[in-house]
Amino acid sequence: MQAEDGFDITQTDRGIALTGALTLHVASALHRDLARTQAAEIDLSGVTRMDTAGAYVLADLRRRRSADGTDLHLVGLGDQRAALLDTVAETLPDQTEQPPRRMTATDRLAALGEAMAGAARYQIELTAYLGIFLGRLVHNLLHPRELRITSVVHHCQEVGLKAVPIVALMAFLIGVVLAFQGSAQLRQFGAEVFVVDLIAISILRELGILLTAIIVAGRTASSFTAAIGAMKMREEIDAMQTLGVNPADALIVPRILALLLMLPILGLIANVMGIFGGALMAWLDMGISPGMFRARLVEDTDVSHLLVGMIKAPVFAVIIGVVGCQGGMSVKGDTESLGRRTSQSVVSAIFTVIVADALFSIFFQRVGM
């Protein structure tokens, strides 16, 4: 039968014969025409030229026949073309699919053990970076000239001032939701006035600082990891060490110190906006005037609720800062590692903050606060 694009396929007693040039220009047509034939032998003695594309078509056809359990004989190649065909055949991708291996109980136990060991190593690394921060902070406080005030102020603006709008809006909406949902339940018992206590205690004690810490963890932990990780990829941290600059003094202490200063302030802003949102909704939904709301807030809300929330703020700040800085310092030399560490820092910071809040709740309940 007549093929196209510079080569011919003819029938022989033992199979087919190819004549002409088997090059890249005819590879597609050659592959299409050879796929239609079931010949067991191909005579290539009439081929005038063959490049790697033609050799690839022949090698792929021979491998497919072998996979089906039949042999394909290529005759008349010559030494040079046979060597070319063998070289191309060695580079063919392996198409054998390995059946998925079923996990045994031992494999699952080993995977669990590896996960637990990885979590333990991660906790040890966080503890080590906490120690580095505390050690360098004490050193800088004893030697104030070494404290990078400009860097601390810059990070205060980044982690604190720029977070005020989102924190204030979040707290305001939380106060509105608490007042609206609380009034719907308390109205059934004629106790709408207790919505003031519900709003005050929930926001001052738990929601104000917790949700603020979660928002800051999402913004700041990712920012710390991305910034320090990018410097690690560009080998700027190695350059610092070469110049005699301690990376902990330049990168870790200013960031965590800025969080220590700004998170309590953001928590106070969240408390004020949350109570304001709750008071506004209580006025619109239940008719509790601002004066009545303020009077009940002052009379029935103990200052200990505010203290409980503010005590948590420095701990949450250290958690977020240490997790973010550790993630950045652990970045390898590729962007995939940077993205993975950034995501891990956000998740770890939020999870650790929630766990710490639960432990604080148990502790304060035990001590009667």
TrEMBL record:
The chain crosses the membrane at residues 159-179, 252-283, 303-325, 346-364. Gene3D superfamilies: STAS domain. Keywords: Cell inner membrane, Cell membrane, Membrane, Transmembrane, Transmembrane helix. Belongs to the MlaE permease family. InterPro entries: ABC_MlaE_roteobac, MlaB-like_STAS, Permease_MalE, STAS_dom, STAS_dom_sf. It is a multi-pass membrane protein. Signal peptide: none annotated. It comes from the Bacteria. Could be part of an ABC transporter complex. Residues 42-119 form the STAS domain. It is found in: Cell inner membrane. SUPFAM superfamilies: SpoIIaa-like. The keyword Ubl conjugation does not apply. This is ABC transporter permease. The keyword Transmembrane applies. It comes from Plastorhodobacter daqingensis.
